[in-house]
Design goal:
The complex is a heterotrimer of chains A (313), B (953) and C (251). With 313 residues, chain A is mainly α. Chain A contains ten helices and one strand. Chain A is globular. With 251 residues, chain C is of the alpha+beta class. Classes of the chains: A mainly alpha (313), B alpha/beta (953), C alpha+beta (251). Chains in contact: A-B, A-C, B-C. Strand 36 of chain B pairs antiparallel with strand 2 of chain C, so a sheet runs across the interface.
Chain lengths: 313, 953, 251
């Protein structure tokens, strides 16, 4: 599949934003009001900012962004619609939660309820995003059982690193729970992705050119319909060289690992260096997320490619 | 659930529908053009039309894009830069016509043959040929010489008809269909509809073609033959059938010259000629009395034997069938021998012969239709033999194509399948006498200043006396047609004109005038050489060797840049035309038909229809027939005026329908001033349905032949005798042996003697015979993409998306042996040159053959395409490596790369080697980018229904 | 709207195409005719970008692929027209977030409403058949409409009320009709010729059917190969033997 940058940005940015938002919600639910107004406000703004930027970026690839509101209507059948509905719905508890959380003296129960609702909605939104892809029977790599978990884990991991960095910047790098969550999320993200890659690499093809054309047996492409490339070919026919993909996978792994080390280091060094390490970790984990997402698209082969010369998928 | 959106089910995007005739290829289908405020919205096939009966091919549907192509020329142009540069200035029509008139009148008043008028894919040859003849130049032809004259000539000289326009299979009844070679470019829709019928009826389709594409892909059996060996394959089929007695003896005796006695008189002038009595009546051998008698006196005509002919000499008469049988029954045509050359299994030949026999004889049927033959014998039934064949350029474009095609016709005739139900059917005005009586004009004394020719420039020679040669035997025509180089050149040799003119062989010319033929690119062999010829300077004069070049075309083709004066033509939707019985009509087997094209939209630029311009020039030159007595133009209304009012003979005009003052006469009749309106009312065509008893056996069907005479098709109602044995050929052979008043110069004698065999023969194509098979081990040919018509399609926004470049196709196994893979760039080298192209592998191709799509490669800058268009950068032409001349003979003389009988361009004789190439991924050769002439439309950056029209830059 | 209408009720009309792979010669008539109609009809403008440039790109609703099967003499070339199959359970419809993509209840035609499509392209991802093409300039998804603006169009002659591709096809390889009616010509054709679904295992239940290439060679047309025994008598040359046979026949 063609890795469109708007979609990569959308899923990674909103994923990070929702991850951060969920963690903030849980933080509020478990620890009550934000200990520091600016920490709370900035964190909330970063979370909502990332979500909003991601959602806006998703409209860049629309042919008619001005009609985007119509996408809320088909939640009964369409995961994309559900994602849209939930994304917008999440703003309501999230904003209320954010207000209550940063303002001192809020009702703790209300805060906890709102925090949990926000966290749940954020995660469900991420699940919906993942389901947009995971529901497509035409792309087998996306039907892998780890697609939804990976989206969720990457959302949490990137959100956690962000929160860790924000905390560090605001001088709170030593929160053990946060450190543990961040490190565990990063480890899980790495493991999940590795298992996923092994999984799709070993996926046995189940559809052949013979199935697609109904001709059975040994079918070879002779002439493409047109000598000029069409939408289907450019959208669905994207191929990345195995060697290149391997390199990119290494980058994802290396970035995750480096981020983990930096988080560890920041955790250990509680000093001036901590925020620097933490911010660097954010950068690294962002690179990992973007490259991972790029590969998620680039390595996914669409069934339609059987009509365009692919022997099996 | 929300309700469904409302869809406008009665969408009406047009305000008017007009019928006319398509010109996206030579098929001439009827179309309906949907218009909105004078803009073309949609084109579909006309259901009532005899050619396409409603369907329309991809080209036809893309006509809208041709009509709005940015490659359209917009105003007359006069060259200002050097030839080939594309530097022009726009001029007014008056200046253009005055310039042309000045150039032409000078030629006409001094030496009219110094005008060479060659009109390419012209569908108005009845006009242009007549114009040339009125001008007085014999140097006229259209593109037939490089297209399929082998096919036309072999058919016309053998049975008075031919494939395509002159006849077609009885699609409804055929059970077994042999399709030879590439055929996708002509009779496009009728063949496709026919194949559909065969499939529906469960008939067997056998394709004999080195390449399995297009029609061959759906064939029930594919015979992937080696190019140029079809004649041998067909000969081997004949061998099998003769050997087993699976021939229609009755049919042979009735309709062919099988029983005609041929004089066997070695060394004498009449050796090999048909024996006649003193009154000129043909003699046959009476099987009972064993005596030579005239046909009407014979009880039983013998098909073999020997008899002393009457007269003083010791001449022996032998039935011509004996020569035919002996030829095909020789070991040379045994399945085993043929199979080796053809690259197929002997058992395949045997099986197909058996299948032909089965279909023709075991599946024969009878129709209860009574008819009367030319002898007055009444028959109460018509025997049907459901075997038919079709061949086109694949057979034609070889230097052995004439004989090969004759062999195919002989196969058809031996099986008794011509003009019988289920077989191959004539389309009126055919059959005509074999050969037709019309002779080419331009003999000694017939070409004079300010005088018209006494006849038409093109015709059919019946013997050496009809050739257009000088006393020394040298050619009188610039293209050497009807000379000893190409005696039966029924369509001329357009492909030799530029080379001959540049070499002043046989002489130089003053004005080259061409129409609608891309000779500066894909319509020429040796394209690079042709460009050099067009720009060659005459050392004596300092001017170009071809001093003036007038070119008319609707589009900015590669050739435009090489011309001096451009007369921009209209598109096919902006003009009047007639698809005339005098030229190449659209008749169907069951009756004659013709049609018109009419303007459905007005031109949006300063262009004029070529035919109207020709009539205007004719009037300015004062050509007889084009001016009245007071020298005013006879057809001031242009081509439409001519179509209605011109009479070739009394009551015979360009259109056969709606004649007579009130439009009620058909065939012949006085001028009908409202004829065009009558055509328009009838959907722009006219057709006549023959009654059932006149639909078959028309070579000897008295009622048909009398009707055809009355309709003006034939000069008499005589039986059309099939020539298994060609006396015409023998006459040339005898001349080469020194007999008669017209003998070839010594240098041509061996060639003429060898190739003018009265019985079809097979020989290896010349290029194969003259080059080293180790050096050039493979054949290279082209196939016709069905969605393209020659070069025209590449300017078409839709068609060029489908096929914007070509590859060289090679068989997978062969590629593996050569160490080549899909996508490799390779050099293809012939004895003439080298090109660089990209390889694509497939299975369905003869392993000794590489091929590509025809005419996809374009010159960078031409056709108003981007200079980096894939057509120019990845696409290619084989033409660069096809020589227009054969390798030099011992004495240095080079014949054209053509069939020795007809002069048909031997495109498919090409032999090559293929080697891997390095370097840039770009086809070679590349040429300097042609400049865009002034006035062209700016090529649109996007097209949708909102922006069809371009804007002029 | 993106929930599917119930197409299981008896008598449900299922309009679709039946494409005969045995007869299609790959002439592109259907593809171009489709382009031509739709660039001015329901699917207008069906844009072509840089049509005269180095890389022209246009939206087409019907494309003809070429495939090969078999080896050597048995190598077979096939032309394969591919367009929307108007599935009974099309994922392209259910994934649509706006309801622009829908399946008509009346006849089962799958359409995109160009006024509400946001151009998210998800439907094209959901389709295994590559049937949806994006009109870059129009910003909405385009697809075969089965010429919904022709088949009921009272401004056209009754016999012209069929999809442009079917109307144009010169070989008669394309058939249009109600595949929900088992007595329709198309249903009978499918039955007689063993029409099949593309990728049936994906379970989108395509309405359009393809007719397989028929067995080839000796079996076609009921034509057999007559054994060709040499005729005539004697041990002379072949020609002499044939002549002796002719004498026998003619005497």
């Amino acid at each position: 599949m063609h890795p469109a940058y708007s979609v990569i940005l959308f899923t990674t940015a909103s994923g990070a934003g929702y991850g951060l938002l969920a963690l903030l919600g849980l933080t509020g639910a478990s620890h009550g009001s934000a200990s520091d107004f600016w920490f709370g406000a900035v964190s909330m703004l970063v979370a909502l900012g990332l979500i909003t930027a991601g959602l806006l970026s998703s409209t860049f690839h629309l042919g008619h962004p001005e009609r985007a509101w119509r996408a809320f209507s088909q939640w009964r059948s369409s995961w994309l619609s559900r994602e849209g509905v939930l994304a917008v719905a999440t703003y309501v508890p999230a904003c209320l939660f954010g207000l209550l959380w940063v303002l001192p003296g809020s009702n703790e129960t209300l805060l906890a309820v709102l925090g949990i609702i926000t966290a749940i909605l954020a995660m469900v939104t991420v699940i919906c995003t993942a389901m947009i892809y995971a529901s497509l029977a035409t792309i087998r790599a996306w039907r892998h059982w780890l697609v939804v978990p990976v989206y969720v884990i990457f959302s949490i991991a990137t959100g956690a690193v962000l929160l860790f960095a924000l905390a560090s910047v605001f001088g709170r790098s030593g929160i053990p729970a946060l450190g543990v969550i961040t490190i565990v999320a990063l480890v899980l993200a790495g493991i999940a992705k590795l298992v996923y890659w092994i999984g799709i690499d070993n996926m046995k093809p189940i559809y052949t050119m013979g199935d697609a054309t109904g001709l059975g047996g040994d079918v070879r492409q002779w002439e493409l319909p047109h000598t000029s490339e069409n939408y289907i070919q450019s959208e669905m026919g994207f191929r990345v060289a195995r060697k290149h993909a391997r390199k990119l996978r290494m980058i994802v792994g290396a970035c995750l690992l480096a981020a983990l080390v930096l988080v560890w280091a920041a955790f250990g060094f509680e000093g001036d260096a901590a925020p620097v390490f933490a911010v660097l970790a954010v950068l690294l984990v962002s690179v990992a997320a973007v490259v991972e997402r790029w590969l998620f698209f680039a390595q996914a082969r669409h069934v339609v490619s059987l009509f365009y010369g692919e022997q099996s998928v | 659930m929300a309700s469904e959106p409302k869809v406008d089910l009665n969408l009406k995007t047009w305000d008017e529908v007009k019928t006319t005739t398509c010109y996206m290829c030579a098929c001439r289908c009827g179309i309906k053009v949907y218009l909105k405020d004078g803009t073309v919205k949609y084109i579909e096939g006309n259901r009532d039309h005899p050619v396409n009966k409603g369907v329309l091919c991809g080209k036809g549907s893309a006509g809208i894009m041709q009509h709005y192509s940015p490659a359209r020329l917009t105003k007359p142009l006069l060259r200002v830069g050097p030839r080939g540069s594309g530097e022009f200035r726009e001029i007014e029509w008056e200046e253009a016509l005055r310039t042309a008139t000045t150039w032409l009148s000078q030629v006409r008043s001094t030496d009219p043959k110094k005008l060479a008028l060659f009109t390419g894919r012209d569908q108005s040859q009845a006009l242009t040929g007549w114009w040339a003849s009125q001008f007085g130049t014999p140097n006229f032809a259209a593109h037939g010489g490089f297209c399929s004259v082998n096919m036309a000539a072999a058919g016309l000289y053998t049975f008075g008809g031919s494939f395509w326009e002159f006849g077609e299979p009885d699609w409804d009844r055929t059970k077994y269909f042999l399709l030879f070679g590439v055929a996708e470019d002509h009779a496009s829709n009728p063949i496709k509809t026919g194949l559909g019928k065969l499939k529906k009826n469960g008939a067997k389709i056998v394709s004999i073609n080195p390449v399995k594409s297009g029609y061959s892909a759906i064939a029930d059996e594919w015979v992937g033959i080696r190019p140029g060996t079809d004649g041998l394959f067909v000969g081997a089929l004949v061998h099998q059938l003769l050997k087993a007695g699976k021939i229609d003896l009755d049919y042979l005796a009735r309709y062919t010259n099988a029983g005609h006695l041929v004089a066997r008189d070695p060394g004498a002038a009449d050796d090999g000629l048909i024996a006649r009595d003193r009154y000129g009546k043909i003699l046959v051998l009476d099987a009972k009395s064993k005596k030579p008698v005239t046909v009407d006196k014979a009880d039983q005509v013998a098909l073999h034997g020997e008899v002393k002919l009457p007269g003083k000499t010791k001449r022996i008469g032998v039935p011509s069938f004996q020569f035919v049988a002996e030829r095909y029954l020789s070991d040379e045509y045994s399945a085993e021998k043929a199979a080796v050359h053809c690259g197929i299994e002997a058992s395949t030949i045997e099986r197909i012969a058996g299948e032909l026999a089965h279909a023709a004889f075991e599946q024969a049927f009878e129709l209860d239709i009574a008819w009367t033959d030319t002898h007055g014998h009444k028959h109460d039934k018509m025997t049907g033999r459901p075997v038919s064949m079709h061949a086109m350029r694949g057979i034609s474009a070889h230097s052995n194509g004439f004989h090969t095609c004759r062999s195919i016709h002989i196969l058809q005739i031996l099986l008794g399948t011509i003009d019988v139900p289920g077989g191959f059917l004539y389309k009126p005005p055919f059959p005509k006498a074999a050969p037709p009586g019309l002779k080419p004009a331009g003999k000694i004394g017939e070409v004079n200043p300010l005088k018209p020719l006494p006849g038409a420039p093109l015709g059919f020679v019946a013997g050496p006396e009809d050739l257009l040669v000088n006393e020394d035997g040298s050619p009188r025509r610039i293209d050497k047609a009807y000379s000893w180089d190409a005696p039966i050149a029924a369509h001329g040799l357009m492909h030799t004109v530029i080379t001959n003119a540049a070499n002043k062989d046989p002489y130089g010319i003053d004005v080259l005038f061409m129409y609608m033929a891309n000779m500066g690119w894909n319509s020429s062999m040796n394209t690079t050489g042709i460009m050099e010829h067009l720009t060659k300077i005459d050392e004596e004069t300092g001017d170009y060797v071809i001093p003036k070049f007038i070119y008319s075309d609707a589009y900015y083709s590669e050739t435009v840049a090489y011309a001096d004066l451009i007369l921009p033509d209209t598109t096919y939707l902006e003009r009047w035309d007639c698809i005339s019985m005098l030229d190449r009509p659209i008749s169907e087997p069951h009756g004659p038909a013709d049609s018109i094209r009419r303007p459905v939209v007005e031109p949006d630029r300063d262009v004029r229809p070529f035919q109207t311009v020709m009539l205007d020039l004719g009037a300015r030159l004062g050509l007889p027939g084009m001016v009245r007595e007071d020298m005013t133009p006879k057809y001031p209304g242009g081509y439409a005026d001519y179509i209605v009012n011109h009479e070739r003979g009394p009551g015979i005009g360009p259109l056969a329908g709606f004649r007579g003052a009130d439009g009620t006469k058909q065939g012949t009749g006085e001028v009908n001033p409202n004829q065009l309106d009558d055509y328009i009312k009838n959907g722009c065509f006219w057709k006549y349905d023959l009654p059932e008893h006149m639909r078959y056996y028309r070579m000897a069907n008295r009622d048909y032949l009398e009707w055809a005479q009355g309709f003006g098709f034939n000069p008499n109602a005589n039986q059309i005798m099939f020539n298994l044995y060609s006396e015409t050929m023998q006459k040339f052979r005898q001349a080469a042996r020194g007999h008669g008043d017209f003998v070839p110069p010594q240098v041509h004698r061996r060639r003429v003697e060898s190739f003018f065999d009265p019985v079809p023969m097979w020989y290896a194509p010349f290029e194969e015979a003259m080059t080293d098979a180790r050096e050039f081990p493979m054949h290279a040919i082209t196939q016709r993409p069905m969605a393209m018509y020659h070069s025209w399609g590449s300017q078409n926004a839709w068609l060029r998306q489908i096929l914007g470049r070509n590859w060289l196709y090679m068989e997978r196994g062969r590629a593996k042996k050569l160490g080549m893979k899909d996508g490799d760039w390779v050099h293809v080298t012939s004895h003439h040159g080298r090109i660089k192209v990209q390889l694509k592998l497939m299975n369905g191709v003869n392993p000794d053959t590489v091929w590509t799509w025809n005419a996809i490669g374009k010159r960078s800058g031409a056709w108003n395409l981007d200079k980096n268009a894939p057509e120019a950068k990845k696409g290619f032409l084989l033409n660069h490596i096809i020589s227009d001349l054969l390798p030099a003979r011992g004495d240095g003389y080079r014949y054209s790369n053509s069939d020795p009988v007809t002069g048909q361009a031997a495109w498919f004789d090409l032999r090559v080697r293929v080697e891997k190439a390095d370097g840039a991924e770009m086809s070679e050769p590349q040429f300097e980018v042609t400049k865009r002439p002034p006035g062209l439309f700016k090529a649109a950056m996007k097209i949708g229904s909102r922006a069809l029209r371009g804007t002029r830059s | 709207m993106t929930t599917l209408p119930d197409t299981t009720k008896p008598g449900q009309k299922k309009l679709g195409l039946v494409i005969d792979l045995d007869t299609c010669v790959g002439c592109q008539a259907c593809a171009v005719s489709c382009k031509e109609w739709n660039t001015q009809g329901y699917s207008a403008p069906l844009t072509d970008l840089e049509p005269y440039g180095p890389d022209p790109a246009g939206a087409w609703l019907n494309r003809i692929h070429g495939y090969e099967t078999g080896e050597g003499d048995n190598a077979r070339g096939l032309h394969f027209p591919r367009s929307c199959l108007h599935c009974e359970t099309p994922a392209c419809v259910t994934v649509c977030p706006t309801g622009a993509s829908y399946k008509r209840e009346e006849d089962g035609i799958v359409l995109v409403n160009p006024d509400t499509c946001i151009g998210c392209k998800l439907c094209s991802w959901a389709c295994p058949y590559g049937a949806r093409e994006y009109d870059q300039d129009d910003g909405v998804m385009k697809k075969c409409t089965l010429c919904v603006d022709r088949i009921y169009n009272e401004n056209l002659e009754p016999e012209d009320r069929q999809p442009a591709c079917v109307r144009a096809c010169p070989t008669g390889a394309r058939h249009f009709g109600d595949l929900g009616d088992e007595n329709s010509d198309v249903s009978k054709l499918v039955k007689a010729r063993g029409g099949f679904d593309l990728l049936p295992q994906m379970d989108y239940k395509p309405v359009n059917k393809y007719l397989p290439p028929r067995p080839r060679r000796d079996t076609a047309g009921g034509v057999k190969s007559t054994p060709l025994e040499t005729v005539g008598k004697g041990d002379g040359s072949l020609a002499e033997r044939v002549f002796s046979w002719i004498d026998e026949v003619l005497s």
